[in-house]
Amino acid sequence: MASVDVTVRGGGIFGLSVAWACARRGAKVRLIERERIGAGASGGLVGALAPHAPESWNEMKGFQFDSLLMAESWWREVAQAGGEDPGYLRSGRLQPLADARAVDLARERAEAAKTLWRGAALWQVQEATGAEWEPASPTGFLIFDTLTARLSPRAAGAALLAALRATGAEIVIGEGRDEGQVIHATGVAGLGDLSAALGRTVGSGVKGQAALLRHDARDLPQIYAPGLHLVPHANGTVAVGSTSETQWSEPGPDRQAHDLIARARALLPCLARAEVLELWAGLRPRAKSRMPLIGAWPGREGHFIANGGFKTGFGMAPRCAELLAALVLADEDGIPPAFRPDALA
After folding, report:
1. pLDDT score, position 253
2. Which CATH architecture fits 6-85+152-201+288-343?
3. Cα separation of 105 and 107, whole Å?
């Protein structure tokens, strides 16, 4: 009898989530992370679990919506299992509206949300109040939605790690041996490996930068403006992100990180004197489809892929993990066809 049913390679959000989904089903799990938990994009700062706009509905938007709805109970179970708080809160989000056309479009989306969001959350247009934690809006109107949530990326990783250890899962930092079914959740490097195996590019890394400021807005909504996301966290900090760079001269934080801070302070004057605690930069894995890559590795029996969570990884991870665990452990295939690696092969 095998000592391990499933080996998961990669200690980012997809790897940890899939390992947990397998462990909670009773599987014996070995997780191998070559460097450290959250070494890649999952060790960032922002942690926004944000929905797509409620319009032009498609399989991807519906999948993400369902994943965001299941997130609260899923993360609560993780916290209860391991005793670590992932910093989850369904905090909502405010967005300023630039002109009359933007207001009209937002109102159209509010009507669409009544149907597409099935009464589970609101997307509404409301008047600005001038509150300190509120972006100035040229029209005097803001979008507010009640679906957007947040968690702390690093705290979420620690919570999943604690939950895995509570189940008796084996955690290997460094080199380890594959045994049982093998799930590859290795981010940008994994996209390179899959591309080489298939003989075609299936994805690449996109550089993202973010900053962390000391400002206590822990129970207040996130704020979104074009190219800028401000996410209050439970520890009295605000994460500011993020860039999306396909070309860069250096891997670490650069002037664009400082530009994020300047724009955040212009949007919210209450951040003008907030201490900068950290600048962060990393590569986020983006599949050519812009969707997650979840499913069997084409032509490699017993091997599976969990990758490509560009911008939506933390929000999509719970549902992606549960579906992949069902496929690996019970041969139950509920994964959307567009998410499967063979769709890019």
Report:
1. 95
2. 3-Layer(bba) Sandwich (3.50)
3. 5
